Amino acid sequence: MSDEKPPQLVDYFVVAGLTDTSRPLEEEGQQHRPARPSEPITDVAVIIRSQGEEVPHGFTCIEATTSGHPVDLNAGLLNNPQMFICYKRGRDKPPLIELGVHYEGKDRPKPGYKILDTTPYSRSANLNSGGPGHQRTFLTYRRAAEPHGHNTLGVTDICLVMPSKGESTPHTFCRVDKNLNTSMWGPALFLCYKIAMAKANTLVYEAGLLGRYPEQDSESFPLPESVPVFCLPMGATIESWPADTKYPLPVFSTFVLTGASGDKVYGAAIQFHEAFPRERLSEKQSLRLGLLSVVDRRPVAGRSLQTRKSICVLSHWPFFDVFRKFLMFIYRYSISGPHVLPLETHISHFMHNVPFPSPQRPRILVQMSPYDNLLLCRPVSSPLPLSGASFLTLLQNLGPDNAVALLVAVLTEQKLLIHSLRPDVLTSVGEALVAMIFPLRWQCPYIPLCPLALADVLCAPVPFIVGIHSSYFDLYEPPRDVICVDLDTNTIFQSEDRKLLSPRSLPRRPCKVLLASLHGLSQQLDEMYSGPGEEASLELLLSDAAAARGRRAQLELEARAAFLRFMACALRGYRSFLRPIAPAPAPAGRDAGSLFALQGFLKSRERAYHRFYGQLLRTQLFTQFIEDCSFASDRDPCLEFFDTCVDKVQAELEKPEDTPLMELDDPRGGEHTVFITPPEQPAGPDGTELPARYRYDGFPTLRPELLEPPRDPLVAQLCQARSSAPSSPAPRRTKQEMKVAQRVAQKYSSVPDMWAKCLLGHCYGLWFLYLPTHVRAAPAKLRALQLAYDVLRKMEAHKVVLPDEVCYRILMQLCGQYGEPVLSVRVLLEMKRAGIVPNTVTYGYYNKAVLESKWPAGTQGGRLRWAKLRNVVLGAAQFRQPLRQRERRAAAAAAPPGGPAPPAPRPSLQRQTTWAGRSLRDPPPAPRLVKSGSLSFPGGTHHGEGRPGEPPVTRPPTLPAAPDPLPPRLRGAPGSADGSLSDVSFATDESDRADEGLGGGGGAAAGGTPRRGLAAKLQQLLSPGKRPSLRPAASAELPTGPRDAAAACPRRGSEQRDGDPPPRRSPAETLLRPRERPESTASESSVSLGSELDLSDTSVGSAGVPKSSEPAADGATGQEPPAVEVLLSSCSRCQGCGALVYDEEVMAGWTSDDSNLNTTCPFCGRSFVPFLSIEIQDFQLPPRAPPFPSPPPLPRSAAEDGSLPPPGAQGPVLSDRRRCLALDEAGPELCNGCADAAVPRRSERVAFAYLSPLVLRKELESLVENEGGEFLAQPELVDSHPIIYWNLVWYFQRLELPSNLPRLLLGSQHVAPAPQAQPPDSPCVRVRLLWDVLAPEPDACPPLYVLWRLHSNVPTRLRCWRPHGHPFSLPFLEAVLSHVGLSEVHKAIALFLEALAAPGGPWHLQRSIYREILFLTLAALGREHMDIAAFDKKYKSAYNKLAGSLGKEELRRRRAQPPSSKAIDCRKSFGATLEC
């Protein structure tokens, strides 16, 4: 398991405010700005000077525009009434908060607005009173509600602008877009007003740190020194209020801190006021605050002194709503009381005992007090990066058109300054601006809430996105090249020096769809918040809050999806312009120009949009995006999700697609909720409640002794989501890949042949998940990687349906890890050959492997040239071989009969070992694989071994050689598909000489048909319907003499005898011959002599063959048994009807749901859970025990008198029962049944659920993510996760894939500890896969194939069957076999049904009639002489023939139906490699 620390909800709790070292902020640069108004505007009026009306007392008349032009509201009229607007400031009533213009007869009166229809002198206040034909126009206003605080927002300034004179709306002013002069004459005139907080008698200082918890910095995230400045962005203030002023409500704000590595830290703070002592003020400060009279310095009565303070929490997670509730609870706790518990207890309780929500427990309900609680939900599962963005807030404050204009500004990297009077809105909008350009990332300075002390960043010469409080403009002028965005007035201010690109420069159709989507969402928002803000909030509180949250979350998702669709259309096809690093990378390999075809991408766009794309390609945004796509990073899942969005969108459409790009995944629907109780209140000595003694006048200084340690750390540990092991990032599937795999499985579940290939693809995916563990344990890393590459090629050859790219990705990662970049390039070429375009995750791992690995020398000399020369020499030798054979035959014919034999020609040099890891000259009866000590010519050795009467020469055993790891099933034609020289030379070395030996040995043993065995093997290899035999010749185990030795181990012979010229070989035979494995071992239960009549294919899972997990030296040889033998069977009994359901039928009954363990019974249709039955037999001998005796040799006469067919000869037919029985009597352990094996010291049977590959992969991924990939190599896997372990063993053995999993069994509780005196070779584990059940029911009728073996006196593995009490006699079995042999399967079925209905019945069988006849035929004929596909066709035809007379329902009731096409395809894909 990874040691990485689980995520923490809150990192720090901070208290910020005024400290002794705080410096003033308003003294610098303020003298050039006009003084801020000290009081808000409370009234407006209209006067008519032509009627003699004067400006009322206390009012101010607006007589000029912002640039000094005189204003007259009716300047264009002939009878000019000279009307002017006046306003009044004060604090005697609530201030005005909004102004407007009302056209009578056109506009409806807005709720909450008052129309100014008369002047102070009771005349009409119609602004267009020139005549009856003019539009009546009036001013409107809205006043703040009672009660109002000292710092309530209100209208602080009013001005008039005249656009015809070149005037524009001033910064932070809101313009009413209705002309005050509606006449035909005169210039247009617009009313503008500013909303702000009118502050008087205020001192502003830089905020400092007053307290923090914890006091020590975390190693991973130390507390930044600038946090107090962000908590109070406009500074810590000292304010002088009237004595009767009410306290304002706390103000909530959020901010984002970005680290050097790009990690974001989110802060949530509330600002509040509390009393400040006058004693701490100097005389100068008191004068500025109005607390002392200017003349005599006397104290001014009726004033109170307040300071602004802030409390804040820092976290890596944007849970802003949760943090706001917690901070408000802490603030209310500090101003109420008394309390039994101190404030510090609640702070430490929230930080220590509230866990981070995990997928297992997605909801955390925190009860902070009897009246306060909060619900903490896991972040919405989304492939997009986590952020605090709110696209709805962006639309509400800017509208659709301005939002698209800002999209252009961000994509072209402009200087953006967003400002508002609401600090919490700044962060939401700033996060939305950087999130709308996904998958691009903003690379320049980004401060969504910039403190006043850090405002110098606005002068930086680089692009930036900065948010600031609107009061900044009361102090400073913004730079001229900055684009200002006022969120309060929905206005974008652009300077003449830096103009934005028009939204028309964007691609037309995607931009049109984006605007249409945003307008629709904006309209829905207006319907949700139709009334004023206060009324709407109250309505939402009184309505169903949960439904409102769900509706808002859905709209938020749709807004984000609209921007995502635009970006997908704008960047469509970008992957085809990525340039993979194929050769050795140059020093500038990470340059964007070398990684991406910039000009090619630009030319692929329409010419009308080249200006926009040209600016986009030159930005840091796009450069970083290309690097993220080219190299592995933590953004790979996000980019892979974007690629799927690119595939879904259709840029030519003018409406959104029907399939949504994003889906709402609400974690609140989870059933598991963790309840966190409030801190426990201490009790007195006698159990009574302690008195409440904690009361605070203001927010206190945190006392370390009152901060309690974690109360229940186990709760937090249980709820924490454990992270993945850092050493295995590639095996993870992204969530998008999981969804795609699920859809593919659902699609193919109804297509029989594709369902089988889909299951097979998931099985290979399981092995590749295990591959890092296997390669880590392999002694030869390159050989293991080459094996995995061959597996990939074999999968492509078999058209396996891969649900994702994890197989390729894992191999690429391992190539980079072990320094094999060339193999990584071959894997990428294999992907392209298979028609798979690598996604961002795979592409990143490929480039990382190629870039970071050490490449071989770039010169063409060295190994490559030697390989070419070697191939040329071998080719020339192939052409010369027929000439040598002709010379040999001529010399043999010319030699006198009694004279000495001519000297043998000097053979060509050969390698020391074969591909199987053994010497070509090793004698056949060697007990284990050995390596020859020196290079010598094999002619003399062959003569020595071949003389009659002499025992074979045995060399002393040396170090064991490693076998060829590639199983015969995975080995195709050795010739490379891509024509590489290495693969061509791979097929023309030792296999050449092995073929020579095979030809000579076969001729000696078979008499007149020396090439018959070879032809049969080649025919099987070239036939697409049949698989080459997985067993070597049985005689390799039991050589009885020199002649038999030559026939028994043909591939180990070195040269032909002098008088036996070898037959000619075609080049196809040489190149297409599969590499032979080492000699068979005694672990195989039955091997036939030449005819291969056995039903069991026991080479599957043998520990001594290459396809198993153990090397050959560790496996059981012909003279010793395995240490542990494991029998596995997937045959399961249906609980509904009692029928036995076999492996392929179980596979066909599985569903595409990766959480469903059930399969469907093919007979009764019920669902049940299949099981893997396991029998573990421990053969480990005690110390100093005698070795296991070798089996007696076969009598020589049996092979000489012709009773046994020679190798390669045709096996007996069905009617030749005498020869079958002769085989059985000749070698009891080589018969169709099971050999008499040694009695195990300990035997145990267990059963675990048999999982679908889809379910198993999901569980294995979870195990690797939680425990790490190293756990798969530990013996604890067997006992702690037995279901996963045994299913993996089953699938890997079934597909003949190498693994070390069986060895883990030796360290589990199922196997007794090994004795102290261990042999030099470690014990091996042999795994056998069975088709039928492990333990039969004694009362059940035995299957026909068992009866055949019993009648034939063939030992069987299952010895507890009843030999009598059933209607199946030997003539019955022979009659069934006769009907099958004559292609009269319908008669065999009818005979079977008649026997079941015989007197003494009815007999109810657990197996279907199809299964009984199939197994009987296999037992009698042998697997290699039985075409199961042809039998299936005959049986289906016979079933349809009988259905006409008996009816399909009756046949189904009696279990006579054939298997479904799904089951047949599953058996074809996985192979019928199981034994009975």
Backbone shape: elongated
State the oligomer: single chain
Structural class: alpha+beta
Query: What radius of gyration results from the CA coordinates?
Result: 44 Å
Task: Give the total of beta strands.
Answer: 32
Mean pLDDT: 74
Give helix % range. Answer: 25-40%
Major sheet attributes: 7 strands, antiparallel
Strand content: 5-15%
Number of helices: 41
Characterize the structure shown.
The chain has 1476 residues and is an alpha+beta fold. It is 34% helix and 13% strand. The chain contains 41 helices and 32 strands. The strands form nine sheets. Strands 1, 11, 12, 13, 14, 15 and 16 form a seven-stranded antiparallel sheet that branches. A hairpin with a 2-residue loop joins strand 17 (363-369) and strand 18. Helix 17 (752-777) runs parallel beside helix 32 and helix 19 packs antiparallel against helix 20 (821-833). The longest helix has 32 residues, at 863-894. The two termini are 40 Å apart. Residues 28-32, 531-543, 712-729, 901-1119 and 1184-1236 have low confidence and may be disordered.
Short précis:
With 1476 residues, this protein is an alpha+beta fold.
Secondary structure topology:
Elements: E1 12-17, E2 41-48, E3 59-62, E4 83-89, E5 96-103, E6 114-116, E7 137-143, E8 153-161, E9 173-175, E10 190-197, E11 202-205, E12 208-213, H1 227-231, E13 236-242, E14 251-258, E15 264-275, H2 283-288, E16 303-315, H3 320-335, H4 343-353, E17 363-369, E18 372-377, H5 391-411, E19 415-420, H6 423-435, E20 446-447, E21 464-469, E22 483-486, E23 491-493, H7 508-528, H8 533-542, H9 545-570, H10 592-595, H11 598-603, H12 610-617, H13 620-630, H14 636-648, E24 673-676, H15 713-719, H16 735-748, H17 752-777, H18 781-797, H19 806-817, H20 821-833, H21 840-852, H22 863-894, H23 939-946, H24 981-986, H25 990-1006, H26 1012-1022, H27 1042-1048, H28 1067-1072, E25 1124-1129, E26 1132-1133, E27 1140-1141, H29 1143-1149, E28 1159-1160, E29 1167-1168, E30 1171-1178, H30 1196-1200, H31 1217-1226, E31 1242-1249, H32 1253-1267, H33 1276-1280, H34 1282-1294, E32 1325-1330, H35 1344-1351, H36 1370-1381, H37 1385-1396, H38 1409-1421, H39 1428-1446, H40 1448-1453, H41 1461-1470
Parallel strand pairs: 17-24, 19-21, 19-22, 20-21, 25-32
Antiparallel strand pairs: 1-12, 1-16, 2-4, 3-4, 5-7, 6-7, 8-10, 9-10, 11-13, 13-16, 14-15, 15-16, 17-18, 22-23, 25-30, 26-27, 28-29, 30-31
